[in-house]
Amino acid sequence: MHDELRELVDNWTPKAITMANGSERLVTQQVIRRFAEKIEISTDGCWRWTASLGPAGYGFFKVQRISLGAHRFAYLALQGPIAEGLHLDHQCHTRAIAASQCAGGGTCLHRRCVNPMHLKPVTPRENTLTSLSWAAEHAVRTECVNGHRLEGPDLYERRGGGRACYVCHRESDRRLRLAKAEQEGRVLRPPPADRTHCPQGHAYDEANTKYSRGQRTCRACSAESSRRYNARKKAERMASRTQVDPMPPAPPALSPEGPR
Fold first, then answer.
1. Is the pLDDT confidence value at 32 over 90?
2. What confidence tens digit (pLDDT) does each residue in 158-209 have?
3. For residue 57, what pLDDT band results from cuts at 50, 70 and 90?
4. Residue 67 contacts by C-beta under 8 Å, 6 or more apart in sequence?
5. pLDDT at residue 54, rounded to an integer
6. What does each C-alpha distance from 185 to 7, 178, 181, 182, 194 come to in angstroms?
7. Closest CA relative to residue 91, chosen from 76, 72, 111
């Protein structure tokens, strides 16, 4: 055992740590000795875990029949609690990425590091952006896969977060609508911005086009709609004028003896 770890074990005072399920476990000197025996200190200061590893390459350690990440145990026991919702970022891995000294992946030796001084609680987003994952690579892109700039009108912000290319999004939507129209035996009309005639067949030329609230409209159709509206209102007014008023009620009959 390394002298640094031997000193840690000899000076250890039992303490309780809170697990992910909310229960507490007592870390005795025997537990910390068993933990230290599975560590190999490298020249770069990393505490390499030499025991069981998960599929992603992170170490696992069992405390009183509960298994947890070895790096999480190290931080809980030697540093303190981890706020809910935060992940532990390996700062040694982040520095190695910045220096182009690590290719990442499940074989990355930094994932085996359990040195609490190399661990920092961060949000899941921060932990992802400092990695070599696809999400981190996508976050710093300035162009989409088709070469469209991810800025200005070409940038599409998703509701759940993230960026997308509006040009590619619109083209994908057009292909879906075209496929659905062909399946139903319909002819797909071009998008409104590309249409040369209105639905009634009037040309969108300079004399017949007007803009209302940023939308292009047909003057001929607008005039026809106004004409029909005025004709309907005129007919309603004429009908109300020619309507016969009901006859007023007859006055009460007078008694033969005259009024009393």
1. yes
2. 776 677 788 888 888 888 888 888 888 887 777 777 788 888 889 989 899 9
3. confident
4. 60, 61
5. 87
6. 80, 10, 6, 5, 22
7. 111
The answer to whether the beta carbons of residues 107 and 57 sit under 8 Å apart is yes
- Return the domain boundaries, the chain: 3-140, 144-188, 192-233
Phi/psi of residue 111, nearest 5 degrees? -65, -20
Rg of the chain over Cα atoms, rounded to whole angstroms, equals: 39
Are 70 and 49 in contact, with CB atoms under 8 Å apart? Answer: yes
* pLDDT one-digit tens code per residue, 134-158: 555 666 677 777 878 777 777 777 7
State how far the Cα of 163 lies from the Cα of 232, in Å rounded to an integer.
51
**Strand duo 155-157 + 163-165: pairing:** antiparallel
| Residue written as token pair 């009108």 | 153
Paired with 165 in beta bridges are 155
